[in-house]
Write a structure and sequence with these properties.
Ribosomal Protein S5, domain 2, 4 helices, about 120 residues, alpha/beta, single chain, five-stranded mixed β-sheet
Length: about 120
């Protein structure tokens, strides 16, 4: 299934401002109900709700290669979370990593993400 990523800045800002924040280890998870989930569901070929996911990594002190690596690790951890658990759909989810995540491996990020998702009642 194709995943929908957040591209618009106003959705990131909305998630930061009015979404619930769950901090765990090296990541912060922002969760916000998606008001346009039903419209996206109609355009989806499988006609199911999906989560729109965004990945945020700070620019300060990190080069492009390190930022892209952190985003790849975050993306893989989220896909693994969806594969192994029944994740609630119809949400805007923003995964924000700190600069300390540059040395983290995928299992460590996945563990932090799974704990934050449980606290957020996503799984």
């Amino acid at each position: 299934m194709k995943y929908i990523s957040l591209c618009e800045n106003h959705l990131f800002t909305k998630a930061y401002a009015s979404g619930k924040r769950y901090r765990q280890g090296k990541i912060t998870l922002y969760v916000l109900p998606d008001r346009h989930a039903s419209l996206i569901r109609k355009s989806n070929p499988l006609h199911e709700k999906v989560n729109r996911v965004g990945y945020a990594v700070p620019k300060r002190g990190l080069g492009a290669v390190k930022r892209n690596r952190i985003k790849r690790v975050l993306r893989h951890a989220y896909f693994q979370l969806e594969r192994e658990n029944a994740v609630k759909k119809g949400k805007i989810v923003v995964l924000a990593a700190g600069a300390s995540a540059q040395s983290a491996k995928t299992p460590e990020i996945y563990r932090d993400l799974a704990q934050a998702a449980k606290r957020a009642e996503l799984i």
